[in-house]
Amino acid sequence: MKLYEKLADEMTEAVRRGVFAAGERIPSVRQASQQHGVSIKTVLHAYALLESRGIVETRPQSGYFVRDAVATAAALDEPRLSRQPAAQTPPVAAAVDVSRLVLSTLRSIRAHDAVPLGSPYPDPSLFPWRRINQYANAIARRHASWNLIDDLPPGNPELIRQIARRYAENGVPVDPDEIIITLGATEAINLSLQAVAKPGDTVAVESPTYYAMLHAIERLGMRAIEVATHPVHGIDIEALAQVIARQKIAACMVMPNFQNPLGFQMPDARKQQLVELLAAHEIPAIENDVYQELYFGEARPSTLKNYDTKGLVLHCASFSKSLTASYRIGWAMPGRYRTQVEKLKFLNTLTTPSVPQVAVADYLRQDGYDRHLRHVRKVYRQQASIMTAMVRRFFPAGTRMSAPQGGYVLWVELPERVDSMRLYQAALARSITIGPGMMFSMRDDFRHFIRLNYSYPWTAQTEAALKTLGDLVARMA
Amino acid sequence: MKLYEKLADEMTEAVRRGVFAAGERIPSVRQASQQHGVSIKTVLHAYALLESRGIVETRPQSGYFVRDAVATAAALDEPRLSRQPAAQTPPVAAAVDVSRLVLSTLRSIRAHDAVPLGSPYPDPSLFPWRRINQYANAIARRHASWNLIDDLPPGNPELIRQIARRYAENGVPVDPDEIIITLGATEAINLSLQAVAKPGDTVAVESPTYYAMLHAIERLGMRAIEVATHPVHGIDIEALAQVIARQKIAACMVMPNFQNPLGFQMPDARKQQLVELLAAHEIPAIENDVYQELYFGEARPSTLKNYDTKGLVLHCASFSKSLTASYRIGWAMPGRYRTQVEKLKFLNTLTTPSVPQVAVADYLRQDGYDRHLRHVRKVYRQQASIMTAMVRRFFPAGTRMSAPQGGYVLWVELPERVDSMRLYQAALARSITIGPGMMFSMRDDFRHFIRLNYSYPWTAQTEAALKTLGDLVARMA
């Protein structure tokens, strides 16, 4: 290995480990030359290599800066939406069955001790699980005989108060009496959908959409209609308006913040437009906001609830992505459908276990949730940047990417000839998992897309996995 | 207080505390006279009073025995089923909405720090919660970063193995691959019903039936048809056959062991008859067997699964009544509907939390579940006997009772003019809760019935509450 390559690798490693954060300036050429005891020429060579790898960029008269994938990737690599834009070929409502593919994917991810690029879940080692378990233990000791009847729906009052407080602090209008504790956001979404629509009804979703939305529709025997969704602006409101004009839509399910898989944060103006369009037709909006705390920007983004004047937004969220996945604590704020959702919660699972509810409430009240979140946000933002740079480095020409503004998944469009199900199988044989694009739609538009999870710490193994993936893609393209 | 009354009270107390168990002989008149230093005449007087209270009975040439409510009450106080036997007035399928009443009842039970005769749940202080929490803590410590993806449906393999082992040991044929871990039996029942029937379908249930069955039907927009159910033999198979002849039945939901509220154990021959009748018409049977471990007899009773040759029995159970309610671990063995139920589990709540699954598995493998169960069974049997005797003592003539053969609830038929909803309100005002009969049916047949929970230790407060209830009933009758 040449000297300049060695230096470039060291710098890459430093960026990966967060020594230099996205947007930060790296040492000047002169400084680096002194620090590493190498010539100016070697440093220039190394920095050029870093630039070609997509890890740094030069700014005139300023020096070299760690590239911020979040800020730059959208403009560079905006994924095309679909072979057929919605305006040209009207989407057709379809009965749904994507759960088989999703379950088998999750199973193989579990079965193989593989690189978890395909996991839909955040790296649990970042969670403050030790602190939360301590609260749970203390509660279990305090209450010799915890009764199932405690904390029946709507749920533990203190937990509800803590959730309401966080919303209020972030400018989201909230009435604590509206909050119903559920078993993760999955149950919140299921109950919300059942509260507003009947079997056979048609529900509008984003395309691509988070598959849990399709699952909820499938479970209740409803039909989904996919609406083109822009990787930066979110659901195409024009296209949705056309769909509404053409047929009866019972509900619209969206993920306005850090959508899985696209990662966008819908601009405020468009959130408002969406709420107003739906309100004009009295169509309930089911808002999945599980990534609300995982923003890369300055502040927590607004929600559809901020623009809801008619109680038509059923807001669903959970702690599973930001605090603890194993406690399975989620909630719904179902607007005017509160009574129905509460009743359905009772019918569906009777109650959410009490100790986890109280443990989370205690943690929120007494512990460092905000500190934890600041750390996680920084880590994810950093790792988004590294993952973006690595895909750019290892994947063949014609590859495009999302520019996640929060959350922990990257959406990658491969050259059109690549079948992500074949890639998935080939990767699995090499102990690498990916999320094939077909999980996110009932249409065939995302066959050459994959979703990559960047929540896990970046290691040499991850890098090797990404290189292997890139090689496989190149061979298939 | 007279001397013989004092002695009678002491003996009553001894029975209550389990000094003398149901079926045991109490000291002879001569022994008692010596032990207590009172005359033979006083003892005879006291024993006569005990007999009139229903606490002991005389057996010719043998002496006085603690009355076994379980063995004797059925013959003495067999509740009438309904004003209109099913054979005369055909039951009419009805859309269901009993959940409002049930939820408000549970709420008032929680809100009032009241005598919990109305609670549907067992006294949690009998659970080995300390041991189970220890296992959970050990697991949480062992697995720094428990992943949500572990123990996806069907569930933790070791837990499934332990459940299968218990069935096998009790003569229930079971294939571990059939077991799917759920969030309590509530979810198992919901998923089972959704797997076999569609909205609008008609489902046959017992009358009275455990309200969770009605909830499941209500949740899925189905219709329930109630079939007369005998307090000792279970669902009236003749009446069910007539219903099946008359209309299409999508499923039949029953609780063959220690039915809530009736407490019967369906005889084996009738279980077989029921399975055969349903199999002849290819009708799936959803069997709720949550009280399977709480038998008063010699051995665990058989299940409908024992007679199922076509895979039409969907067996549902949980640990919530016998080990821990707060962990919410249940399961389904759905026969030929296994694939559908597993998929619905995934769609409904994604996964059952992993730590509780593993904690229960560890407890089952390493701890004293059987010893715990032997204790609980003895306690419940004793307390069933005491509760029966006390109702007999304090309630007015015309009161009849079930003879529970397991579980922890007593079903009481009050004189016909008593409205149990009014009784419920009046009792609540005196900090006593009861389960009003109307929770167990959509028909008006059980307005003068109540369900009483005898799982809590018998105290002076319980006795006072029962006396108050008896007085209220007498006044209303």
Question: What can you see in these coordinates?
Answer:
2 copies of one chain form a homodimer. By secondary structure, chain A is of the alpha/beta class. Chain A folds into 3 domains: 65 residues, Winged helix-like DNA-binding domain superfamily/Winged helix DNA-binding domain (Arc Repressor Mutant, subunit A), CATH 1.10.10; 142 residues, Alpha-Beta Complex (Aspartate Aminotransferase, domain 1), CATH 3.90.1150; 228 residues, Aspartate Aminotransferase, domain 2 (3-Layer(aba) Sandwich). Chain A is 43% helix and 13% strand. The first copy, chain A, has 16 helices and 15 strands. In chain A, strands 3, 4, 5, 6, 7, 8, 9, 10 and 11 form a 9-stranded mixed sheet that branches. In chain A, helix 8 crosses helix 9 and helix 8 crosses helix 12. At the A-B interface, helix 5, helix 6, helix 8, helix 9 and helix 12 of A face helix 5, helix 6, helix 8, helix 9 and helix 12 of B.
SSE arrangement:
The structure is a homodimer of 477-residue chains.
Chain A (H helix, E strand, L loop, with lengths): L2 H14 L12 H8 L3 H13 L3 E4 L3 E4 L2 H8 L17 E2 L3 H13 L17 H14 L14 H13 L10 E4 H13 L5 E6 L3 H9 L3 E8 L3 E2 L1 H10 L4 E4 L13 H13 L4 E4 L24 E6 L10 E5 L4 H12 L4 H13 L2 H26 L5 E2 L7 E5 L6 H10 L5 E2 L12 E5 L6 H17 L1
Parallel strand pairs in A: 5-6, 5-8, 8-9, 9-10
Antiparallel strand pairs in A: 1-2, 3-6, 4-11, 6-7, 10-11, 12-13, 13-15, 14-15
Helix pairs in contact in A: 1-3, 2-3, 6-13, 7-13, 8-9, 8-12
